[in-house]
Amino acid sequence: xxxxxxxxxxxxxxxxxxxxxxxxxxxxxxxxxxxxxxxxxxxxxxxxxxxxxxxxxxxxxxxxxxxxxxxxxxxxxxxxxxxxxxxxxxxxxxxxxxxxxxxxxxxxxxxxxxxxxxxxxxxxxxxxxxxxxxxxxxxxxxxxxxxxxxxxxxxxxxxxxxxxxxxxxxxxxxxxxxxxxxxxxxxxxxxxxxxxxxxxxxxxxxxxxxxxxxxxxxxxxxxxxxxxxxxxxxxxxxxxxxxxxxxxxxxxxxxxxxxxxxxxxxxxxxxxxxxxxxxxxxxxxxxxxxxxxxxxxxxxxxxxxxxxxxxxxxxxxxxxxxxxxxxxxxxxxxxxxxxxxxxxxxxxxxxxxxxxxxxxxxxxxxxxxxxxxxxxxxxxxxxxxxxxxxxxxxxxxxxxxxxxxxxxxxxxxxxxxxxxxxxxxxxxxxxxxxxxxxxxxxxxxxxxxxxxxxxxxxxxxxxxxxxxxxxxxxxxxxxxxxxxxxxxxxxxxxxxxxxxxxxxxxxxxxxxxxxxxxxxxxxxxxxxxxxxxxxxxxxxxxxxxxxxxxxxxxxxxxxxxxxxxxxxxxxxxxxxxxxxxxxxxxxxxxxxxxxxxxxxxxxxxxxxxxxxxxxxxxxxxxxxxxxxxxxxxxxxxxxxxxxxxxxxxxxxxxxx
Length: 656
Fold this sequence. Notes:
The protein has about 650 residues and is an alpha+beta fold. The chain is about 35% helix and about 25% strand. It contains 16 helices and 21 strands. It has helices at about 20-30, 30-45, 50-55, 60-80, 80-95, 110-130, 135-155, 170-190, 195-220, 230-250, 255-275, 290-295, 300-305, 310-320, 340-345, 470-475, and strands at about 360-365, 370, 380-385, 400-405, 410, 435, 455-460, 465-470, 485-495, 500-505, 515-525, 525-535, 540-550, 555-565, 570-575, 590-595, 600-605, 615-625, 625-635, 640-645, 650-655. The strands form 4 sheets. It has an 8-stranded antiparallel sheet with strand order 7-8-9-10-17-14-13-12. A 5-stranded antiparallel sheet has the order 1-2-3-4-5, with no helix packed on it. A 4-stranded antiparallel sheet has the order 6-11-16-15, with no helix packed on it. Helix 11 crosses helix 13. The protein is elongated, with a radius of gyration of 27 Å.
């Protein structure tokens, strides 16, 4: 794969300034709502002292100092008011009063912090170079030169500079390479007189940054265009990577088809991840239920891959008038995507209901399935995860876990992000839709530790969407929990409102009885309202539990359990332990369904009864070459009989 179709080693046209063209266009055609959001954010910066900007935590500071010069320069360009621009450069000058030009302000996360500032300064020179005073231009180059020297030294001496492709899966490293790209490109483009050594250095930085950025896209991104840590970290990464890609595309020529496909998939992947009714994304892996961070780089990806028709309604649903109405702004400043939104965004009347996308998508490389019955705000939506873990990135023990939204609202949820290898942290199995065996789940994740599951099957027909995962390797990792089988099959039946059927089989392969706990996590707005049990077959019990909306006392979803000798189910309120207090972790209700047996075999039917669906009968019997569950449903007066065999899509029998 090549970044572009031909590579000469230096930019083909050093005079091309795509950022400048966008600024000039925005001065006349910027959307007034986004423009107002930008100016509101810029006024907040205007009222803050340099000390206040430096006082925030190390992680927010990294992103604030990236957003700050970009937004303030753009605010001056849109209003003609030099105060914004002058304030930003006065504070940038104050950075130089620290040792090493302020490099130590970002030292907790090298090369992420100084790298993002270099990327921002490179864009400033591209977009506003004609308007900068001579001493301000010199300041930009001085900071970029100093930071790139330190980043390049760090790269040569540290693990993140390793040439192995696996290193490029680590988010922080690619930000350093993006900085080298912009540092080298900017010096080559400048009118500064460079010595032969300085010219060779700039060409080297540009070359290394360019090659590593394309390698990151090849090795560090999955086929759906995001890295393996989820949408939150994809936004952080693409904040640095996408400006390089955009710069390169317009300076040097047409982008490689493989890269375009990744960007195309990223735009669509975000669309599939939107919870139908509102301004949130699914909590996959380390993704936060807050879309601001995830949408950095989104407009640029859509621009380059020609997917604006998808990006516009998605952005509107998340950040625009149908979402949280921030338009890319962030009151805490560090998640802002205003600069990109003003230059590349455009309001539209289209909604996600207008998207010409399929209802289901299987992302094979991530081991991830998303299905919704429509693209309307009141859609049913379901996700399932079971894939390869990668060392040295944020990872959770969430193999075979799933989420569900009904009427557009989250009903079964992921409990939130965490990155701690501690038994009681939200990284572990107990915080997901999983099964505990004698109180233990999969091997502990967090920090640099990860586990892997195996996605065994995916199929869709007119009757159902079928998926199957095997989490045995995740339980067995480091001899943590030596189960012999940890298989989960799921059928989403395409009834008038989809019905979900789950088959779980857990075994340790011995003759002893074990305590199995089937876990489910719901929002605090839902409550386990009632339960009953009745005999279905001689050795099978049927247990029915109803999830109610606490505020309205209306049934949301009924859970029908078909399993051997279930004990009493528990509804446990799981609030944030102080040790893991995080505003993005959802306070939730954890429901535990325990069984004591030699092996754990669970059949679970998730049924929206208030939609006119009910179970007529359930049989467990031989069918063709193996055992099957035969589920007979009454779907708004129409009786339908489904045959569910492990490892196969559902079959719809004739009406009984």
